[in-house]
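Supplementary notes for students who missed Thursday's class. We covered one full example, reproduced here. Read the sequence, then the structure, then the short commentary at the end.
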Amino acid sequence: MNTFLKNTAILAVGLLSVLSSCSGDFLDNKPTDAVDSGIVPVPSNAGRIFNGAWYNLFEYSSTYANIGYRALMLQDDMMADDVVSRPMYGFNSSYQFNDVGMPANNRTAFAWYLMYKTIDNCNTAISITATGDDNTADFRHSQGQAYALRAFCYLHLAQHYQFTYLKDPSAPAVPLYTEPTASTTEPKGKATLEEIYTQIFKDLNKAKELLEGYVRPDDKSKFKPDVSVVNGLLARACLLTGQWNEADGAALEAAEGYTLMTDAKTYMGFNDISNTEWMWGHPQSVSQSDASYNFYYIDVVTPDAYNSFMADPHFKDIFEAGDIRLELFQWMREGYLGYRKFRIRADQTGDIVVMRSA
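Structure (token representation):
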């Protein structure tokens, strides 16, 4: 896959301390990076807990170069062979492969906290039980979304902290937590890849069951997984475990109902969650825009952006004449080749894509 074009962390199905205290207007409850113990056992708060888990994953920050999951997506892109680092602020250490496995590295610690805090919040939502009138469709949908997000986090961890499943399913990977933790929780050792992927498939199948009939009301709700997103994650998990036919089937189901973006959309900054290809993403608004700061590293058009990400000139050579994406390449200052795909909007916001149907 051409990672600078499609981003390794974007789940392409087609074969996938906050800087400000503003709450997001797309979230239906006050966001949080932790769960208030007073609301844990209440089924009506499952949606709020999921929102908190999602907000933590995309808005929590430790530095301006570590803002949410988009920063980890950029880290992966910077390590790809089609990107050249312009050694500005933010991601040159990723270019040197220092940000994945060095315990003392700031981004390594940030990633570990980000994923496991999100998992812990999902575990809290999943731990809630509901009976009778409390067992509403909203509760089941929120819990299904928590299962999907937990699976997504473990997919990320499995891919980043061990070799491929197909190399050795018994290889130790990362700790596996499925229950909420507390300060007294005994730390766990590494689970094997087989154990991690078994849990991933279990979570995704449960999510698919619970999300049956769920329809997102609008594009601003695309941060909430639906069945199509779950199918996209299943396609990715099947690919990673060598289940080729199952991956193909899940991918086709995931992309059903989505249309490819028009040629004109290619040149509009890749920053709009209403894009017809986008299946899953993180919307931004003026009142919630911390994650938008990530655009400054990859935007080569906006004045005063860092312009940290440049394209390898040899990458351009693989495109055939007439490919509309060739027009996005532009020679920049200092002899770097820029790629004008990602641009921040005029109001200094930009939505973040997580999964596409293309």
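Commentary. Confidence is low (pLDDT under 50) at residues 1-32. The first helix runs from residue 3 to 6. If anything here is unclear, bring it to office hours.
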